[in-house]
Amino acid sequence: SQTIHQWPATLVQPVGSPLSLECTVEGTSNPNLYWYRQAAGRGLQLLFYSVGIGQISSEVPQNLSASRPQDRQFILSSKKLLLSDSGFYLCAWSVSGYQPQHFGDGTRLSIL
Amino acid sequence: RKEVEQDPGPFNVPEGATVAFNCTYSNSASQSFFWYRQDCRKEPKLLMSVYSSGNEDGRFTAQLNRASQYISLLIRDSKLSDSATYLCVVNKMVTGGGNKLTFGTGTQLKVEL
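^ Those are the sequences you sent over. The predicted structure of the assembly is below.
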């Protein structure tokens, strides 16, 4: 069966520090991969999605970037974190763009 | 108009009650529809897909009205453990082909003793 791993579960970072969140999927090939952010009490905001290695689509202009160096690995990065980057970051995968997405446990990021 | 619109709630209902959530979507070309459940401070989890003819999974019934671009979720005999936020999800086509899912902001349900 397919599983998705996302880490760390929680992270506290100072403003201006770099960020790297990693997500890996097991048990499937060539999945669609997604990064979402959810601010406290708000809905899911799609940040990036990828349909293949090296293919990244950005949904909103921001301080973050994403990379997909391997088929089942998706990385979310920032060179300098802002206070507004705080939130709950979720990675997800799906077989295709119109089939259900399955989420990792999420990373709760606090910027001080 | 939002791509996916839901009443944010909260819906406060007694245990054993029947509760219905509604959702409207703006893209008439959408083909895939889902309900997700999100517990407080947790990731969303797929509850059920929504099919054109309507479908049922235990106490949960989902219905789709394509003409009105409307989706519903009915929960019968509510349990305390049903307390969560319910997200309506619809696909949309993107530039260059392909699809992605759009998540509603969710309706909060609180089931009380």
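The radius of gyration of chain A is 13 Å. Chain A touches chain B through 23 residues (CB under 8 Å).

Shout if you want it in another format.
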